[in-house]
């Protein structure tokens, strides 16, 4: 019974992680570049709606990954007591993955999202872009991509930790 529950929660953990990581990367590496084919007004409207819609989905997915990860390591896994977190290799990797996942979730939902929305709400750079002065908008989006890149690096770190456990 416990093995079946473990397998079910593991499956759920992996599926939600694919949705979270894949969703964030798909928006950044596929949807945003494709939105450059739209005129500036359409692009701004589309990206604003996209960010507002996906923001909550990504938060829920991140919480789901963290919650199922906690279940897999504790209730259904080898961590039975607090000391296991710092006296075992599994516990140390588990706690590192936990804090990294929380950091990535907070970074994406608080820093990355706000930075993107600030660019989308900045009338000055969008008005300049309408007049074919796109440098400020392009710079703002490049900086936003760097900020969002922290999330991707965090995802890679979590995956590296998970592959070692």
TrEMBL record:
Is Transmembrane found in the keyword set? yes
Transmembrane segment boundaries = 12-35, 56-79, 94-113, 140-163
Q: Which UniProt keywords apply?
A: Membrane, Transmembrane, Transmembrane helix
UniProt name for this protein = Copper resistance protein D domain-containing protein
